């Protein structure tokens, strides 16, 4: 029998027959029906949470994507449409956003500050279950007529996507596949037929507590968390009757002649294994003789891996099937296991780059539990060789790769930017290190994902070889590097060699970065659909002050109104501690020059001292800006990289106060009025 919690009587611990304590997850249920799964066995020191709503969609209307946008524009407890953007500018969080998938909508966050995390959960919960969904917000956030064209934040987002050739190709594959994959995010032509009534009906039918769940990990103050959720859940009442609707929209968008696509019936795991072998140059030539062209393994509209081929009337489907079957038979078991692990790491790294380490771990750890719903469950790849090779039907549902927690190891070398000879020698040695690492990884059957990189800071250049791999393999790789790679191989270069917990570092003599002094410099460049402003700061200005300034700008009403007015898809800020730069960018902007004027007016506003409360919010937001850039994913690597040039993510906010912030804004305003225009 479920037992109520003494300090939160509307939350019940699930009975033993509904628990899976051996997996480390503990389940609770609110009286409204909402489930809460907490990963009690997680060793995470950060707080992660995700409110998940099942949102099935079978057409191209974009109703689920539009609703994700709309619920964040004001709710019963937070009626101001600016609240979401204000919180993004003031909360010390690593991630605070929402995403629409093909079968679910997720409102998720990660961070270290319990106060910020609780406020974010409270805002999300109230927005999800009690949104305003106002007519005027629909016109600004989704779509509205603007002369002979259309405007609106979502409309502009989709227009930006369609300008990308890869996105257009994924649309064509989704439309021509069998079964046809819904363009669930919406299309510009289908948004014209979407209205606020449709969104309200969908919300009433699907955004219900009894269908939703929240996943959490980390040391949450549970009672405080439940209290935030209960404020949104209490008094909701039962579902309202929703009249049946045959609402369905299909996009007429077409980019080139339609494709004829044939999909082979391999399971997602084996499709991912065989796709690299079928992508080699020799195999591609053979496929051309058969009249077939291999298509990408997956896309946003078709997230489940599948072997798809563009074919024609002259294609011999039977010979194509036999050829791929032969490739499968000739694939050694070691190669199959390696490629499966490599693909999982690729998918995990993509999720880490998009949402951060905390959410990647949260979703993965939940996906392997027996009680995860189908759209959140990942397939077990541990017994790959005994899994089925083929399946009956191809589906268009969500698909999650079973990727464990990842860690980035690195070999970093610093030299003088102008020393071409040393740079060439270090590059050659890093390539040699890469080859040795890959050979060792293959012999040890430890898949990993490596890449080369270069980072410039003043007169210093950092060259590096980075490797993303499961945390369980970190010690083995570190021992291999420490015991195999030696400074004697580059002894001709004068420098300092060091073993670190993150890998190896080598710093050449006379390569210490000489930081810039003098005045703040501004660079302004407008594209057809974007504004780009870069502020370069001398190093005597503390990084904490720069971060606070950036978030104070984002919190101004002028900047928020530019985004909320639907004139651009996004208006963002980013801090680069390597180059000491603060950047402001817009995406899919109807008029970049107007956005630049809004930015100027924001600095003019900050040139006058702001009140104490606004200043404190900007300080918290500044901490969040730094954390989101350098602690959201691969924090150890970012610390090591910044350490190579004498920088640190531990920024100091002690030097900034209301007066110095005003003075800094005044100085920046002067630089912006005389920028370097591109």
UniProtKB/TrEMBL annotation:
Coiled coil: none
Peptidase M16 N-terminal domain boundaries: 59-169
Cross-referenced InterPro entries: Metalloenz_LuxS/M16, Pept_M16_N
Pfam families from the UniProt entry: Peptidase_M16 (PF00675)
Designated name of the protein: Insulinase family protein
Biological source species: Enterovibrio qingdaonensis
């Amino acid at each position: 029998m479920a037992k109520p919690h003494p300090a939160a009587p509307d939350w019940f611990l699930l009975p033993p027959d509904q628990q899976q304590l051996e997996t480390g997850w503990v389940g609770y249920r609110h009286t409204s029906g909402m489930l809460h799964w907490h990963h009690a066995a997680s060793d995470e020191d950060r707080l992660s949470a995700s409110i998940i709503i099942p949102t099935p969609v079978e057409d191209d209307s974009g109703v689920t994507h539009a609703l994700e946008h709309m619920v964040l524009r004001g709710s019963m407890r937070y009626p101001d449409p600016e609240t979401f953007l204000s919180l993004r500018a003031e909360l010390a969080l690593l991630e605070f956003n929402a995403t629409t998938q093909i079968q679910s909508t997720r409102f998720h966050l990660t961070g270290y500050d319990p106060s910020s995390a609780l406020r974010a959960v409270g805002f999300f919960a109230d927005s999800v279950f009690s949104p305003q969904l106002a007519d005027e917000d629909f016109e600004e956030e989704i779509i509205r007529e603007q002369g002979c064209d259309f405007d609106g934040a979502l409309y502009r987002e989709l227009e930006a996507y369609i300008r990308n050739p890869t996105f257009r190709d994924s649309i064509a594959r989704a439309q021509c596949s069998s079964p046809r994959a819904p363009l669930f995010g919406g299309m510009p032509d289908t948004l014209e037929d979407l209205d606020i009534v449709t969104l309200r009906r969908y919300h009433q039918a699907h955004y219900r507590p009894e269908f939703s769940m929240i996943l959490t990990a980390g040391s949450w103050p549970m009672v405080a968390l439940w209290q935030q959720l209960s404020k949104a859940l209490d008094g909701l009442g039962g579902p309202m009757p929703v009249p049946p609707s045959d609402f369905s929209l299909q996009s007429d968008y077409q980019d080139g002649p339609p494709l004829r696509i044939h999909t082979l019936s391999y399971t997602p795991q084996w499709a991912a294994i065989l796709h690299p072998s079928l992508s080699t140059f020799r195999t591609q030539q053979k496929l051309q003789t058969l009249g077939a062209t291999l298509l990408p393994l997956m896309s946003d509209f078709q997230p489940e891996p599948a072997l798809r081929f563009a074919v024609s009337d002259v294609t011999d489907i039977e010979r194509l099937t036999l050829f791929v079957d032969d490739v499968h038979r000739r694939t050694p078991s070691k190669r199959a296991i390696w490629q499966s692990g490599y693909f999982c790491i690729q998918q995990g790294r993509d999720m880490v780059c998009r949402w951060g380490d905390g959410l990647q771990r949260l979703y993965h750890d939940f996906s392997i539990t027996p009680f995860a719903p189908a759209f959140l469950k990942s397939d077990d790849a541990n017994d790959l060789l005994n899994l089925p090779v083929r399946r009956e039907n191809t589906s268009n549902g969500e698909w999650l790769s079973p990727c464990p927690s990842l860690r980035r190891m690195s070999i970093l070398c610093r030299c003088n930017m102008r020393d071409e000879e040393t740079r060439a020698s270090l590059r050659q040695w890093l390539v040699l290190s890469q080859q040795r690492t890959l050979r060792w990884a293959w012999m040890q059957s430890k898949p990993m994902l490596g890449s080369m990189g270069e980072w410039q800071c003043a007169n210093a250049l950092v060259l590096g070889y980075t490797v993303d791999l499961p945390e369980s393999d970190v010690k083995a790789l570190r021992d291999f590097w420490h015991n195999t790679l030696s400074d004697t191989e580059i002894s001709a270069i004068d420098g300092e060699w060091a073993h670190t917990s993150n890998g190896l570092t080598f710093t050449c003599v006379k390569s210490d970065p000489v930081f810039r002094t003098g005045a703040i410099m501004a660079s302004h460049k407008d594209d057809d659909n974007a504004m780009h402003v870069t502020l370069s700061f001398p190093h005597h200005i503390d990084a904490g002050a720069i971060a606070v300034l950036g978030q104070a700008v984002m919190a101004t009403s002028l900047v928020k109104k530019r985004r909320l007015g639907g004139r651009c898809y996004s208006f963002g800020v980013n801090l680069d501690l390597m180059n000491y730069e603060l950047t402001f960018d817009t995406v899919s902007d109807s008029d970049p020059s107007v956005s630049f004027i809004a930015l100027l007016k924001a600095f003019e506003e900050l040139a006058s001292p702001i009140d104490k409360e606004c200043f404190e919010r900007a300080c918290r937001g500044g901490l969040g800006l730094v954390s989101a850039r350098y602690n959201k994913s691969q924090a150890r690597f970012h610390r090591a990289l910044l350490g190579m040039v004498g920088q640190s993510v531990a920024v100091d906010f002690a030097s900034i106060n209301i007066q110095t912030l005003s003075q800094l804004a005044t100085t920046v305003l002067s630089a912006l009025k005389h920028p370097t225009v591109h």
